[in-house]
Write a structure and sequence with these properties.
210 residues; alpha/beta; Rossmann fold; 7-stranded mixed β-sheet; 9 helices; globular
């Protein structure tokens, strides 16, 4: 169990050799979930988008493709993830359309009211307090801005609960818990969807207009 636990724990903050191994499969391993999540985004033409907990950078790249006129900022707690995401989005960074930053979602070093869209794929399990972190997301979004959360776990599935028991700092949240924290953080308009055959969830929230 020791090596396995050490490896899966890299999902929180990839570091060292095991972290590199985890990141090497992260983009492809989460692609189907992320693509399902992307189908829930409303029709919009954001000028600026931010992907929080960007991992290997694939979803930031998908945002760049989905919104050809948008600038995308990607943020991750892990220096290794930032390095991987920079490699993945090298061309878009050179073109001035993408920026990859190391940062903590509980205290985002991003300007207030700057972004039209924020996304968080497979990451809020590790955020240190949903209400505090969601308030930070609300702070950097423009009034009426959209925040999309996409998780592989609905907070009740046995497989994810098993990982929660062995990964330090991991917490699987139910849709109800996520919605309540979003409401408290300044997102009064929240809708969610549960995959028909998997424990996947997508939660879409809109920041208060004023």
């Amino acid at each position: 169990m020791g090596l396995f636990q050490d490896f899966v724990s890299q999902t929180r903050k990839p570091e060292g050799l095991l972290g590199k191994m985890m990141l090497s499969g992260m983009n492809s391993g989460h692609a189907k979930l992320a693509d399902w999540g992307f189908t829930h985004l409303p029709a919009m033409t954001p000028e600026k988008a931010v992907d929080l907990g960007c991992g290997g950078g694939r979803n930031a790249g998908e945002l760049l493709k989905k919104y050809p006129s948008a600038h995308v900022t990607a943020v991750d707690y892990s220096a290794l993830s930032v390095e991987k995401a920079k490699q993945y989005n090298k061309a878009m960074i050179a073109a001035g359309r993408c920026e990859i930053l190391q940062g903590d979602v509980s205290c985002l070093a991003l300007p207030e009211g700057c972004f039209d869209l924020a996304t968080a794929f497979e990451t809020i399990y590790f955020w240190p307090g949903l209400a505090q972190c969601f308030a930070q997301v609300a702070r950097v979004l423009k009034p009426g801005g959209v925040f999309m959360i996409c998780n592989e776990s609905d907070g009740t599935d046995p497989t994810s609960l098993k990982f929660e028991a062995i990964i330090d700092g991991m917490k699987n949240h139910t849709v109800e818990e996520i919605e309540a924290a979003l409401n408290a953080a300044g997102f009064p308009d929240v809708v969610s969807d549960h995959h028909p055959s998997k424990p996947w969830i997508t939660v879409l929230a809109r920041k208060r207009e004023s």
